[in-house]
Every structure is written in C-alpha cells, then in structure tokens.
Write a structure and sequence with these properties.
With about 475 residues, this protein is of the alpha/beta class. It has 11 helices and 30 strands. Helices cover about 25% and strands about 35% of the residues. The protein has a 6-stranded antiparallel β-sheet, with no helix packed on it. Strands 6-9-7-8-12 form a 5-stranded mixed beta barrel.
C-alpha cells in the first residue's frame, strides 16, 4: 500500500426530512441523534488515523465555524475547509476537491463521503476502503454498495454484473444505477441477489475523476477550474470565487459522471449503514422496547407500539398514549406529529412553512455563532430577552446599534466588557448597561463558558441592527450577530 487515502467530506446539505431537529441554520450533520458526537464528528473520526490523510471539507459559508469547532472537539484537524458560495449538489463539490487535491498531491487517492451517515462498524468500513484500493488505483471509479436487508424504497440501488458470492468482498463491475423503486420493484431487487443500496460514497484517484469530468462533464470542469483559480483565503478557509460559481450547474455526481462512465466498480459492504434520510430511519436505528417504541429525552409512552417519541429540551416532556406507528418530535419552538409511513413528507411540510414565511421552517431558536450561541427567551413590544453563551476565548465583534440599548447580566463566568473607551471585568451577579449608539464588545477571557442574560430595549430589535467595526472572525455577511 503506497500513500494515504485523502478523505473529502461533503458538508453542505440542509436535511429537511429530519425537521424540526435539522434545519437550514443547523442541519442534521451537526446534530447528535445518538451517542455523544454529531454525525459530522463521527464521520471525521471514521476516516482519520492510520492510512488516512487530513480531510478536506466542502461546506457552506454559514457552516464554516461549526465545521472547525466540531472537528477540534474530536481532535481531527482538516487539511482544508472550502466554502461554496451556494450549494450546487455533489458533482461541483467533488470536482473542486479533485482539482485542489491534484494541485497539492497529483494522482492522490480520494475518498468522497457525505458527512451525515451512520456506519455502525467503522473498522469494517475502513477494511472495505482498503479492499477497494487496488481497483481505484488501477483507474476504476469505485462506489460503495450496501448489502440490503429489506425492500427499501428510500434509497437508489446498484445493479451488479453478477450476483454476489457469500464470501466475496472484492469490487464487482457495476451494470446500472436504479432510481428509488416502488415497493414491488424493491422487493424484486431484494430477491434477485444482484442489487445493493447506493451509499453515495466513492473512491478514485484525482487522475481518474478529472479524466471522467473532462469526458462526460467538461462544462462543469471548466467552471470549477475558474472558481478554484480565483478562490481567496479567508482566515483558515478557502472561498471559491462567487462570480465563477454562479455559472455552475446544480447536478449530482451520479447524473453528471457515474451514469455515463464505463469504468465503474462496486465495493460491497455488509456492515450496518444508514443515511438517516428521515425519521423512519431514526426509529429504525434506535433501541426499541418490546412494543417497538424508541424514546429519546424526557418522554413517557403508554400503550404505544412501533413509534418514535423524542423530546429535545430538558424543560419539556412528551407523552404518547395509544400511538401506533407514529413519529412525535418536540423542539422548544416546533413539534412534529406524523405517521411513520409518511415520514418522507416532512420536507413538503418544510417547503409549505417556508412559503408561508414561518421562521421555524429554517431557523432554530438557538443561533450558533463562531464565539458560541444565543437564544431568545422572551419577546414583547419594544423588548427582547436573550441567553448568550460565549465559549472560552470567544469574542464578539466591536459594534454599536442604531435602534436599541442593551443590559447584560452575567450569570456564570467572568466577562470582559468594552463600553466606549472603558474596558472592565464583570463577574457573576453583576450587570452593565450599553446605551444606544455606543460602541461595545463582549469577550470571555476565562477557561469556562460565559453565560449572560441580555435585555434589549428599543424601537427595533432585529438582528440586522448592527454596525460592526472590528471582527476577529472576518465575517462579511450583513447583519451577522456578534
């Protein structure tokens, strides 16, 4: 074995089918659905260590600080974090990663994976990657296929040139892609023994994938070259050129290249896998009781069966009585109730709420920032109350407001506060007042999180009422809090 595998994490999706936990402002890959780490953190751990180089992450502007913070928490350092100006599906993300990796390490072996999957046995999947390596180095495009255990209609399928042999764990030539089937067709695919689920994970060299794009999708390759050539550094991130990116088609890797290529292999994998594509999948991955009920958080189930009860906040309690095959998910600002069989329709509900201007469609009550997070506790005429948590070393921008004044009450930790030209330390159970229009800044100089209550008063309390003068995080977007 020569040289490491270079992981590329695709981290730009919104995961609307797992609303209300997953939303545009904080999508599912950053959430914890089980265990102590998020799906993204589990992905980072899965493809790190011996045999793997530092990963490249392709993500969106709003998620860049989440990526860095979550990777640091699991002690995995990225080689690069690349920011897409707008989401353009998987083909553009993959070719950008290939171009950047080829410039640094020509002919490198790259593993492209979504960052929101569950793989129960990470070691077994690493073995599968090693088993696929020779094919990829020989110029094949290897996609990973999951051996099915049910007639699943929520996944695409892969048709193999030959039926799998029980002990065969080597790549097999791919005959065709099968779109998500109906129930009857899925049952036929399961019974036939020549089809696997399409995991959307790929292994190939930069040389192979660049040649494939040149042959099958030259227009995407040309735009990607311009976007990479004009990319600019931003702190530790790389921002692709927005002008070039505006010309980029929105197209999947399967459609742009895979369905046209003739050098495709499938590496079978028989370990546990799920793309967590909806609440039905969350129920399936859970630990049910004897009645098939999966519970998470403060919940009570009475005479229920085949259902998922999930409460996300400590201050709430979800009670289900006589529920059969239902999904109930409660967040502080939104509740989902749906039959398990219709869990895939959650995305339609999100689209409907978005069209109606419902804020819960896309944003959480808790808003994450590079320095920590805040959430609104109460709103009224000319006032708003927030809880603000600043991580150790975190610092809000030097700013002022045109329409509001603020009161800060420190409830945990010690704050370093700048008001005008004065800098002072504010300890627990102490408050400060920031008059309207005065420059101010908040910083956590300690080693523990800083928590404070902010009371805003004024004629307008929107997040865009901010004039920023200095910002450690070099944020350019208008109205960014802190």
């Amino acid at each position: 074995m020569s040289g490491p595998v270079y992981p590329v994490f695709l981290c730009g999706g919104s995961g609307t089918r797992l609303w209300p936990v997953s939303r545009k402002s904080y999508p599912k890959q950053f959430s914890r659905f089980s265990g102590e780490v998020s799906l993204f953190q589990a992905t980072a751990r899965r493809f790190s260590g011996e045999g793997f180089a530092a990963p490249m992450v392709i993500t969106a502007l709003d998620f860049r600080f989440m990526v860095v913070e979550q990777m640091a928490a699991v002690e995995v350092a990225p080689a690069a974090v690349v920011i897409e100006p707008d989401p353009r599906n998987t083909a553009p993300a993959v070719i950008v990663a290939a171009l950047m990796l080829e410039a640094r390490t020509p002919g490198a072996l790259m593993l492209v994976t979504p960052s929101d999957h569950v793989i129960a046995d990470a070691a077994a999947f690493q073995d599968a990657v090693r088993g696929a390596r020779a094919s990829a180095e020989a110029g094949r495009i290897v996609t990973f296929g999951i051996e099915p255990d049910r007639a699943e209609t929520g996944y695409g399928w892969l048709e193999l040139e030959q039926a799998l042999e029980p002990e065969n764990r080597r790549p097999v030539a791919l005959r065709s892609f099968v779109e998500k089937p109906d129930a009857a067709h899925a049952a036929e695919l399961l019974a036939g023994g020549r089809h696997l689920w399409n995991a959307g994970i790929f292994l190939f060299t930069t040389t192979t994938i660049l040649a494939a794009f040149k042959l099958h999708a030259p227009e995407i390759l040309a735009v990607a070259r311009r976007a990479v050539a004009r990319a600019e550094p931003d702190l530790s991130f790389t921002r692709l050129d927005p002008g070039a990116w505006a010309e980029m088609p929105d197209v999947s890797l399967d459609y742009a290249v895979m369905e046209k290529a003739d050098n495709l292999d499938v590496m079978p994998f028989c370990g546990g896998w799920s793309d967590l594509g909806g609440w039905e999948a969350i129920w399936r991955e859970g630990v049910p009781d004897k009645a098939g009920v999966v519970q998470h958080g403060p919940t009570t189930a009475i005479a229920c069966s085949g259902s998922l009860l999930r409460a996300e906040a400590a201050g709430q309690h979800v009670v289900g009585i006589g529920l059969e095959d239902m999904i109930v998910v409660a967040m502080p600002d939104a509740v989902l109730v749906a039959p398990r069989a219709r869990a895939q329709e959650v995305r339609l509900a999100v689209a409907t709420m978005k069209a109606q201007g419902v804020p819960q469609a896309e944003t959480l009550a808790r808003d994450y920032r590079p320095w920590g997070w805040y959430e609104s506790l109460a709103n009224g005429n000319r006032f708003q109350v927030k809880r603000i948590v600043v991580q150790p070393g975190g610092i809000l921008s030097l700013q002022s407001h045109i329409h509001r004044a603020e009161h800060w009450i420190v409830v945990e930790g010690t704050a370093q506060v700048t008001i005008g030209s004065e800098v002072s330390l504010v300890s627990e159970n102490t408050s400060v007042y920031i008059p309207l229009g005065v420059k101010h800044r908040l910083e956590n100089p300690g080693k523990m999180p800083l928590t404070l209550i902010e009371v805003q008063t004024g004629s307008y309390l929107g997040e865009d009422d901010i004039v920023r003068y200095e910002d450690r995080y070099a944020r350019k977007e208008n109205g960014a809090k802190g």
